[in-house]
Amino acid sequence: MHQLPLPPGPKKKPIIGNLFDIPLVDTAKVFAEWKSLYGDIIYLEALHQRIMVLNSFEHAHELLSKKSYSDRPVPIMLGELMGLDQSLPLLQYSAAAWKHQRKLAHLALNAGAIKGYSDLQAEAVVLFLDSLIENPSDFISQLRLATGRIVLSMTYGVPVKSPESMNFIAELEIMSTIIDKGMMPGAYLVDALPWLRYIPSWVPFNNIHAIATEGRKRILRVIELPFEYVKQQVSSPSPNISFTATCLQAEGGADMEHHIRWAAGSMYGAGSETTMGTILAFILAMALYPDIQTKIRTELDRVVGHGQLPTLDDRSRLPYVNAAIKETMRWNPVAPLGLPHFTIEEDVYQGFRVAKGTIVFPNIWAISRDNISGISPDEFAPERFLDACVQRTALDPYSYAFGFGRRKCPGKFLADNSVFLFVTGLVSTFVISPAVGSDGRHSLLRTPFRQGLARFPESFQVCILPRSEQLAAELQARAREMSKNGDECRSNL
Ligand code: HEM
To answer: What pTM, to 2 d.p., does this model score?
Structure first.
């Protein structure tokens, strides 16, 4: 097997290999461009760490789903030193803890269970829309709060509109930045040269231990704070219902408590920013493609009623909306390189050696650039998914945007419902347009994207205006009513 060639890739330099070939910005996009040079399977090495990039759906499906490369690379800094190796996304497939946590996540997030969260999702959407009436330019931080509140409320029973939710979400944001950086190959030197972790902290210029201690402290706060909140809650006379509370009441044992704590923390960590990033991509698309926004609104008005907020029951009657949601997941996928998988034994694929210990990235960005429908992949065009509009519809993003095989995202149904409720709520009640400068132009085409494992538009400006004063007043009344009910609920706790 060792005689077989490794897949093609850029020429390696001594010792560092391809370390400096790996782009830090738009990594997935650049890997996709390398298709023309090296093909659909690309091989790289960064300081002896083997990396394989799969630029097509067929290869990703074959290796990650059918051959089931289901392990994860665990970066030394993030995993061992900061302690995140106990979380569901970073546990090894063979670990008993992964099976326990995955089972718990499935219990909370399966297609049936998520129906129970539709009220809290609807509440978070109304509060978000209401916040846009007064503060439309603050839409990014309001959306962060709203998507965080959904996962927080479902996982820990923290009421959607409560001061605790703000504090927990602020902590989560800091942790997400740490994880995002730490998951990219080459992020920390200690990941490539593990012996560095044995160098004592007093050695000058060695900041490994200081970074690890700070990260570990942050991660533990995100895992512990809401968990302790639930433990206090479950002993109160009328505790809030939540995934964690239900699991704690049903199961006993210190081991199980550990699994519940990490499963809940993993869902909370993995579920908020991904949903937010997808909705931000939709908002950007609406500002750039006003005709498509109008088509979505026309369908909503016709099927659901003028300015009415759609519910999940309306979904099956909204083909254009559903195509627009698929298009959002395809146009700017929030996880363009998915989460990396890892090989724990030697393999052979298409005549190439797949070495043990290779990090395998499904390049979701490259997969999403398919040209099957004949419509340019760079364009935002829901029509590519509609039989009536094209001869061959594009590859369905639900088959790749949430990952592959046994590690496929367990939160996909919840995420999909949230995206539906937010984007339809927005278009039903508001009009989104580019914010133009004094020269009458906008700069949306140059929108910066947050880089890392999660990629989404950030710091862009759009005008978000209610469709009418009457609709704005109705939204405000609904939000006030919800706040009143929320306060009454809390005073009963
Ligand atoms: C639009 C939103 C979302 C997208 C695009 C997304 C995408 C992904 C992707 C690509 C993976 C990696 C799958 C693989 O390894 O092949 C993943 C894993 C994961 N996701 Fe999501 N996700 C989203 C929302 C959520 C939500 C709402 C939750 C939970 C509430 C969640 C929880 C998780 C967890 C726990 C994992 C790790 C699973 C494991 O390693 O076994 N995600 N997600």
So the answer is: 0.94
